[in-house]
Design goal:
- By secondary structure, the protein is mainly α.
- It has one domain.
- Helices cover 86% and strands 0% of the residues.
- It contains ten helices and no strands.
- Belongs to the Amj family.
- Involved in peptidoglycan biosynthesis. Transports lipid-linked peptidoglycan precursors from the inner to the outer leaflet of the cytoplasmic membrane.
- This is Lipid II flippase Amj.
- It comes from Proteobacteria bacterium 228.
């Protein structure tokens, strides 16, 4: 693994870590009863993810171009495998960090509500980023959550299955379109713009099946129709299914790539 690939893996890690931590935002919103503020503040981190995303595509495309011109084909699939492994690792790390992050984020929400200033919040975070404070906030996922997941699913099996599919497809969408350009360089410009074939399906599944259910769960907690403990178990199932989806992405990468090549060749 060369330095450029390490950099690409790091970008992928950041993107998927932030996406996983988004689940903690719902927990923070429920605990602080400030759903809108929670999602608004999380957009600051989303900006970091999008910046990483904006660098990942061009750098990976450049790497593919160099391999095409050099006639090197045997190592590109392994590059994409490493990127997908980084996504899975980031999801796993994010899952472990959710209890800590939701406590830190809840503190940020309360501070923002009192001071109503993002720059003030950033300054507060910098001033209070000492090791002792982090240790006080740090928590690992509890055994009760894992035991509770076995006892009660809280999320319908179809939603879990959909979330696995969504996570897998979103993980490979852009990567498959770029890899398709490497498989058939003659249509690489067309292929690079066909990620919507994969991401479009994932988007429909997400916003028709998965996201409405998560929103209902959130509203049920706010209206006291669901306990926070049950809500956290539901989030745990969604995080676990996201991780499974990133693993499934390893299996779907090549079929998705060949599908994009097939479509690109016939356009």
């Amino acid at each position: 693994m060369d330095l450029e690939l390490v950099f690409l893996c790091a970008l992928t890690f950041v993107i998927h870590l932030i996406s996983t931590l988004a689940f903690a935002v719902r927990i923070s919103g429920v605990r602080t009863r400030r759903i809108a503020i929670s999602f608004s503040l999380f957009n600051v981190l989303v900006l970091v993810s999008r910046i990483a995303n904006s660098f990942q595509g061009p750098f990976l495309a450049k790497r593919i171009e160099e391999n095409i011109h050099a006639g090197l084909g045997q190592d590109m699939l392994s590059d994409f495998r490493w990127l997908l492994a980084s996504a899975a690792l980031a999801t796993l790390v994010g899952a472990v960090l959710i209890p800590t992050f939701q406590r830190l984020f809840s503190s940020a929400v309360v501070h923002f509500q009192n001071h109503r200033s993002v720059p003030s919040l950033i300054g507060y975070a910098i001033r209070n980023s000492d090791w002792d404070g982090l240790k006080e906030m740090a928590r690992l996922p509890t055994r009760e959550i894992l035991v509770g997941m076995k006892q009660s699913r809280e999320v319908p099996l179809r939603v879990i299955a959909m979330n696995i599919g969504v996570s897998a497809l979103w993980t490979i969408g852009v990567l498959a379109s770029l890899y398709a350009g490497f498989i058939n360089p003659d249509v690489r410009m067309t292929s690079s713009n066909l990620s919507a074939i994969i991401n479009g399906v994932a988007t429909i599944m997400m916003y028709v099946f998965v996201d409405p259910h998560m929103s209902l769960m959130t509203d049920d907690v706010m209206d006291n129709r669901m306990t926070e403990a049950r809500f956290r178990r539901g989030i745990a199932w969604l995080v676990a299914s996201r991780f499974v989806g990133t693993l499934l992405a390893q299996v779907l990468l090549v079929p998705a790539t060949l599908l994009i090549v097939y479509v690109a060749e016939r356009m």
